[in-house]
Design brief:
It is a single chain. With 459 residues, the chain is an alpha+beta fold. The strands form seven sheets. The chain has a five-stranded mixed sheet. Strands 6, 7, 8, 12 and 13 form a five-stranded antiparallel sheet that branches. Strands 9-10-11 form a three-stranded antiparallel sheet. It contains 13 helices and 24 strands.
Length: 459
């Protein structure tokens, strides 16, 4: 078999593992599937084995996921009454959710880290084993791990995989690093609340966030970066500079702009208006509420209801606070007869909208329940699409660059599973966006199924 750049005799699994160790592999990939290093002994003689190291996103994810298991192990030893939920790797680290009678305290993180270090020093091997799903359910029931039981009961697989290290067993697809001794640098960062499975109707669990790197220098560099982020946290700056605030008496996710913050906002909005006028847009204002019927017609109640607030009754008629500006702009367009010679017509509005967000995802000014949206709608002929889309891209990049945003990713979000409109319309729209991105020589990533219900978009 081919292991990295070395040809190894198929029956010589020991030599194959040595080659993987030499390459500092944390896992392997064979035919697109990630596997434990130990599995090299069971592979087909003609297998092409790719060594995954910490230099690869997949390798780093495996490593951090393994550290999350060690953290759960440490928590179970220190807090035997804890029930474990899920513990994935995430972009900059990992987390694990726990159910405990009493909340974690900040000082508990140091205790958990110490216990993790003790587990790591034992160099326990991550042992994978498979068993019938029904047997695993009974095993976790006996352990009192109700969250693992719930996950298992929803799986369709008849056989499931578990990982055991040092007497700690967890439900997991894997893969994992070879042993705990491979863990060189980690840090537990914070404690937060998290609803089980992200559902606010389910129990609130306790989440511990952490991060891990292959060496202490990389870890320290990341921790220093996190400290710099804290210094620049917009919530902290907003409070210290007296720009804005949030108040529980008003409600979560609703912002109060203070005089200095309002001044900054006014300067930005004045710039926005002037540039839109230069680009041929006409400004609109629309009401904050409307009859629910308008949202039925637009499709929002069918496709967007989970982000809309409950209707209110006015004179026996249901009304809704607006989550979008789209229907209002369309009604302005329809308010009089239009000729094809009038097109394109460009409408723009700084429209304040209200959208329901779960309390657990609210975050300063970044995730809120009421915000003012830079919104525009262009009514055009099909033969004008290419020019108009390219102009919108140019205008968007100009605004972003003006405020110093030059490093960003571009996504082409395509038709979601639930949508309206004909296949032909979706194909024409998607092709037009693709053509414009290519015409502007912009690198982009296609994001399948992430468009809105009424059309594709560029994010």
């Amino acid at each position: 078999m081919l292991v990295g750049d070395k040809v190894v005799e198929a029956e010589d699994a020991t030599k194959a593992e040595k080659e993987l160790k030499r390459a500092k592999a944390v896992a392997i990939r064979v035919d697109g599937t990630l596997l434990d290093i130990d599995s090299v002994a069971t592979l087909n003689p003609s297998a092409d084995v790719e060594a995954l190291t910490l230099d690869s996103p997949e390798g780093l994810e495996v490593y951090r996921h393994s550290v999350s298991h060690v953290m759960a192990h440490a928590v179970k030893e220190l807090f035997p009454e804890a029930k474990i939920a899920i513990g994935p790797a995430i972009d900059d680290g990992f987390y694990y959710d726990f159910d405990l009678p009493e909340p974690f305290k900040p000082e508990d993180l140091a205790k958990i880290e110490k216990k993790m270090s003790q587990i790591i020093k034992k160099q326990g091997r991550f042992e994978r084993r498979e068993m019938p799903r029904t047997e695993a359910i009974e095993m976790f029931k006996g352990m009192g791990e109700i969250y693992k039981v719930e996950l298992l009961e929803e799986l369709e697989d008849e056989t499931v995989s578990l990982y055991e290290v040092g007497g700690f067993t967890d439900l997991c697809r894997g893969p994992h690093i070879h042993d705990t001794g491979r863990i060189k640098a980690f840090k537990l960062l914070s404690i937060a609340g998290a609803y089980w499975r992200g559902d606010e109707n389910k129990k609130m669990l306790q989440r511990i966030y952490g991060t891990a790197f292959g060496d202490r220098e990389s870890l320290q560099k990341h921790l220093d970066w996190l400290e710099e982020i804290k210094k620049r946290d917009h919530r902290r700056l907003g409070r210290e500079l007296d720009l804005f605030s949030m108040n529980d008496e008003i409600g979560a996710g609703l912002i109060l702009w203070h005089p200095d913050g309002a001044t900054i906002r006014s300067v930005i909005e004045d710039f926005w208006r002037a540039e839109h006028v230069k680009s041929g847009y006409k400004q609109l204002y629309s009401p904050h509420i409307a009859k629910l019927d308008i949202w039925d017609k637009s499709g929002h109640t069918d496709f967007y209801s989970e982000n809309m607030y409950s209707p209110m009754e006015v004179d026996g008629v249901p009304y809704e606070v607006k989550p979008m500006n789209c229907p209002f702009h369309i009604l302005v367009y329809k308010s009089s007869l239009r000729s094809y010679r009038d097109l394109p017509i460009r409408y723009a509005e700084l429209g304040t909208v209200y959208r329901y967000e779960r309390s657990g995802v609210l975050h300063g000014l970044l995730r809120v329940r009421g915000f003012t949206q830079d919104d525009a709608h262009i009514f055009m002929r099909e033969d004008q699409m290419d020019v108009e889309i390219e102009q919108v891209i140019d205008f968007t990049l100009f605004i972003l660059n003006t405020f110093g945003f030059r490093d960003f990713d571009i996504y082409l979000s395509t038709r979601p599973e639930k949508s309206v409109g004909s296949d032909e319309s979706w194909a024409i729209s998607t092709a037009a966006l693709t053509k414009a991105l290519k015409a502007k020589n912009l690198d982009y990533i296609e994001d399948p199924g992430e468009g809105v219900f009424y059309g594709p978009k560029i994010d």
